[in-house]
Protein backbone atom coordinates (compact mmCIF):
# COMPACT_ATOMS: atom_id res chain seq x y z
CA UNK A 1 0.00 0.00 0.00
CA UNK A 2 1.25 3.46 -0.91
CA UNK A 3 2.67 5.56 1.92
CA UNK A 4 2.68 9.34 2.04
CA UNK A 5 5.19 11.54 3.88
CA UNK A 6 4.70 15.19 4.91
CA UNK A 7 6.28 17.94 2.82
CA UNK A 8 7.05 20.09 5.88
CA UNK A 9 9.46 17.64 7.56
CA UNK A 10 12.83 19.20 6.64
CA UNK A 11 11.58 22.69 7.45
CA UNK A 12 10.26 21.45 10.80
CA UNK A 13 13.57 19.80 11.72
CA UNK A 14 15.51 23.00 10.97
CA UNK A 15 13.03 25.08 12.97
CA UNK A 16 13.12 22.73 15.99
CA UNK A 17 16.91 22.39 15.99
CA UNK A 18 17.25 26.17 15.98
CA UNK A 19 14.70 26.74 18.76
CA UNK A 20 15.26 23.81 21.14
CA UNK A 21 18.51 22.42 22.59
CA UNK A 22 17.06 18.91 23.12
CA UNK A 23 15.76 18.71 19.55
CA UNK A 24 19.14 19.94 18.28
CA UNK A 25 20.65 16.82 19.87
CA UNK A 26 17.83 14.32 19.19
CA UNK A 27 17.15 14.94 15.50
CA UNK A 28 20.65 13.94 14.25
CA UNK A 29 20.73 10.97 16.64
CA UNK A 30 17.54 9.50 15.20
CA UNK A 31 18.81 9.24 11.65
CA UNK A 32 16.47 8.86 8.68
CA UNK A 33 12.73 8.44 8.89
CA UNK A 34 9.64 10.54 9.27
CA UNK A 35 5.89 10.28 9.64
CA UNK A 36 4.14 8.03 7.15
CA UNK A 37 0.44 7.86 6.39
CA UNK A 38 -1.01 4.53 5.23
CA UNK A 39 -4.45 3.40 4.23
CA UNK A 40 -7.66 5.36 4.33
CA UNK A 41 -9.52 7.07 7.16
CA UNK A 42 -12.10 4.36 7.90
CA UNK A 43 -9.56 1.52 7.85
CA UNK A 44 -7.19 3.47 10.13
CA UNK A 45 -9.93 4.18 12.70
CA UNK A 46 -11.31 0.64 12.53
CA UNK A 47 -7.82 -0.74 13.24
CA UNK A 48 -7.48 1.58 16.23
CA UNK A 49 -10.73 0.20 17.70
CA UNK A 50 -9.75 -3.43 17.07
CA UNK A 51 -6.38 -2.84 18.77
CA UNK A 52 -7.67 -1.26 21.97
CA UNK A 53 -6.39 -2.91 25.19
CA UNK A 54 -4.79 -5.91 23.47
CA UNK A 55 -1.26 -6.59 22.27
CA UNK A 56 -0.10 -5.62 18.80
CA UNK A 57 0.20 -9.32 17.87
CA UNK A 58 -3.31 -10.16 19.12
CA UNK A 59 -4.73 -7.08 17.38
CA UNK A 60 -3.23 -8.16 14.05
CA UNK A 61 -4.70 -11.66 14.39
CA UNK A 62 -8.18 -10.27 15.14
CA UNK A 63 -7.86 -7.74 12.30
CA UNK A 64 -6.94 -10.48 9.82
CA UNK A 65 -10.01 -12.50 10.86
CA UNK A 66 -12.18 -9.37 10.69
CA UNK A 67 -10.98 -8.52 7.16
CA UNK A 68 -11.53 -12.14 6.09
CA UNK A 69 -15.26 -11.63 6.77
CA UNK A 70 -15.40 -9.21 3.82
CA UNK A 71 -15.62 -10.47 0.25
CA UNK A 72 -12.16 -10.97 -1.18
CA UNK A 73 -10.30 -9.97 2.03
CA UNK A 74 -9.58 -6.39 0.84
CA UNK A 75 -6.73 -4.22 2.12
CA UNK A 76 -9.19 -1.34 2.35
CA UNK A 77 -12.26 -2.01 4.48
CA UNK A 78 -15.39 -0.15 3.39
CA UNK A 79 -17.98 1.20 5.88
CA UNK A 80 -20.85 -0.24 3.82
CA UNK A 81 -19.31 -3.73 3.95
CA UNK A 82 -18.94 -3.61 7.74
CA UNK A 83 -22.46 -2.25 8.25
CA UNK A 84 -23.94 -5.25 6.43
CA UNK A 85 -22.33 -7.89 8.67
CA UNK A 86 -24.36 -9.26 11.56
CA UNK A 87 -23.01 -8.56 15.05
CA UNK A 88 -22.79 -12.30 15.82
CA UNK A 89 -20.64 -12.83 12.71
CA UNK A 90 -18.34 -9.97 13.74
CA UNK A 91 -18.00 -11.56 17.17
CA UNK A 92 -16.69 -14.72 15.48
CA UNK A 93 -13.54 -12.78 14.48
CA UNK A 94 -12.63 -12.53 18.17
CA UNK A 95 -14.09 -9.07 18.77
CA UNK A 96 -15.74 -8.23 22.07
CA UNK A 97 -19.41 -7.21 22.07
CA UNK A 98 -18.35 -3.64 22.85
CA UNK A 99 -15.86 -3.48 19.97
CA UNK A 100 -18.53 -4.81 17.61
CA UNK A 101 -20.80 -1.96 18.74
CA UNK A 102 -17.96 0.53 18.20
CA UNK A 103 -17.18 -0.76 14.69
CA UNK A 104 -20.83 -0.66 13.66
CA UNK A 105 -21.16 2.88 15.05
CA UNK A 106 -18.02 3.90 13.14
CA UNK A 107 -19.45 2.43 9.91
CA UNK A 108 -22.75 4.23 10.50
CA UNK A 109 -20.99 7.58 11.03
CA UNK A 110 -19.13 7.20 7.74
CA UNK A 111 -22.11 5.88 5.79
CA UNK A 112 -24.48 8.61 7.01
CA UNK A 113 -22.04 11.45 6.38
CA UNK A 114 -21.82 12.45 10.05
CA UNK A 115 -18.06 12.71 9.59
CA UNK A 116 -17.03 15.14 6.88
CA UNK A 117 -14.07 13.28 5.42
CA UNK A 118 -13.92 15.40 2.27
CA UNK A 119 -13.86 18.62 4.31
CA UNK A 120 -11.17 17.52 6.78
CA UNK A 121 -8.35 19.15 4.82
CA UNK A 122 -10.04 22.52 5.33
CA UNK A 123 -11.10 21.94 8.97
CA UNK A 124 -8.96 22.79 11.99
CA UNK A 125 -7.65 20.11 14.34
CA UNK A 126 -10.17 20.65 17.15
CA UNK A 127 -13.15 20.50 14.77
CA UNK A 128 -11.94 17.12 13.48
CA UNK A 129 -11.35 15.86 17.03
CA UNK A 130 -14.92 16.88 17.94
CA UNK A 131 -16.28 14.82 15.04
CA UNK A 132 -14.18 11.79 15.89
CA UNK A 133 -14.84 11.65 19.64
CA UNK A 134 -18.58 11.64 18.90
CA UNK A 135 -18.02 8.09 17.56
CA UNK A 136 -18.28 5.41 20.24
CA UNK A 137 -14.92 3.91 21.15
CA UNK A 138 -12.84 6.86 19.94
CA UNK A 139 -11.41 9.17 22.59
CA UNK A 140 -9.23 12.22 22.32
CA UNK A 141 -5.96 10.25 22.25
CA UNK A 142 -7.10 8.13 19.29
CA UNK A 143 -8.31 11.26 17.50
CA UNK A 144 -4.94 12.95 18.07
CA UNK A 145 -3.03 9.89 16.80
CA UNK A 146 -5.29 10.01 13.72
CA UNK A 147 -4.44 13.69 13.18
CA UNK A 148 -0.71 12.96 13.45
CA UNK A 149 -0.42 9.69 11.56
CA UNK A 150 -3.26 9.80 9.05
CA UNK A 151 -3.85 13.48 8.29
CA UNK A 152 -0.21 14.33 9.15
CA UNK A 153 -1.16 17.55 10.89
CA UNK A 154 2.09 19.28 11.93
CA UNK A 155 1.15 20.86 15.27
CA UNK A 156 -0.59 18.26 17.47
CA UNK A 157 0.54 17.85 21.10
CA UNK A 158 -1.03 14.64 22.53
CA UNK A 159 -0.80 15.33 26.27
CA UNK A 160 -2.69 12.09 27.06
CA UNK A 161 0.11 10.05 25.49
CA UNK A 162 2.17 8.20 28.11
CA UNK A 163 5.24 8.01 25.86
CA UNK A 164 5.27 11.75 25.23
CA UNK A 165 5.09 12.54 28.96
CA UNK A 166 7.80 9.97 29.75
CA UNK A 167 10.02 11.31 26.95
CA UNK A 168 9.64 14.92 28.11
CA UNK A 169 10.49 13.81 31.67
CA UNK A 170 13.67 12.02 30.54
CA UNK A 171 14.85 14.61 28.00
CA UNK A 172 13.93 17.86 29.76
CA UNK A 173 13.59 17.09 33.49
CA UNK A 174 16.31 14.48 34.16
CA UNK A 175 13.65 11.80 34.70
CA UNK A 176 11.70 13.73 37.33
CA UNK A 177 7.88 13.46 37.21
CA UNK A 178 6.30 15.99 34.85
CA UNK A 179 2.94 17.68 35.26
CA UNK A 180 0.60 18.19 32.33
CA UNK A 181 1.21 21.95 32.58
CA UNK A 182 4.99 21.48 32.40
CA UNK A 183 4.64 19.15 29.40
CA UNK A 184 2.39 21.69 27.68
CA UNK A 185 4.96 24.44 28.31
CA UNK A 186 7.73 22.35 26.71
CA UNK A 187 5.42 21.49 23.81
CA UNK A 188 4.35 25.07 23.22
CA UNK A 189 7.97 25.96 22.44
CA UNK A 190 7.85 23.41 19.57
CA UNK A 191 5.01 25.17 17.73
CA UNK A 192 4.13 25.16 14.88
CA UNK A 193 5.69 21.68 14.57
CA UNK A 194 4.63 19.96 17.78
CA UNK A 195 3.74 16.71 15.96
CA UNK A 196 7.28 16.45 14.59
CA UNK A 197 8.88 17.09 17.98
CA UNK A 198 6.53 14.52 19.54
CA UNK A 199 7.66 11.96 16.94
CA UNK A 200 11.31 12.59 17.88
CA UNK A 201 10.49 12.29 21.59
CA UNK A 202 8.97 8.87 20.85
CA UNK A 203 12.07 7.91 18.86
CA UNK A 204 14.23 8.84 21.87
CA UNK A 205 12.43 6.08 23.82
CA UNK A 206 12.32 3.53 20.98
CA UNK A 207 14.62 3.93 17.96
CA UNK A 208 12.13 2.16 15.68
CA UNK A 209 9.89 4.69 13.93
CA UNK A 210 6.41 4.88 15.39
CA UNK A 211 3.64 3.70 13.08
CA UNK A 212 -0.06 3.86 13.75
Automatic annotation (TrEMBL):
The coiled-coil segments of this chain are none
Q: Which InterPro entries match?
A: Alkylbase_DNA_Glycosylase/TA, DNA_glycosylase, HhH-GPD_domain
| SUPFAM superfamilies, sorted | DNA-glycosylase
Cross-referenced Pfam families? HhH-GPD
Class in the EC hierarchy, top level:
hydrolase
The record ties this protein, via Gene3D superfamilies, to:
1.10.1670.40, Hypothetical protein, domain 2
| E.C. numbers | 3.2.2.21
Keyword annotations from UniProtKB, A to Z: DNA damage, DNA repair
Limits of the HhH-GPD domain: 50-206
**Which reaction is recorded as catalysed by this protein?**
Hydrolysis of alkylated DNA, releasing 3-methyladenine, 3-methylguanine, 7-methylguanine and 7-methyladenine
Protein's recorded name: DNA-3-methyladenine glycosylase II
- Source species: Piscinibacter gummiphilus
Amino acid sequence: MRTVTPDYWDEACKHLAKRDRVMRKLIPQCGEGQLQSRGDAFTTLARSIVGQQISVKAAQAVWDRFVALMDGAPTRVLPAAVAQIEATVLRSAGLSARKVEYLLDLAQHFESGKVHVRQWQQMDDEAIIDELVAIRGIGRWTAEMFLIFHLMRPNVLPLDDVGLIKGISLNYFSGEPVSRAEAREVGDAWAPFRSVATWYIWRSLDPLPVAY
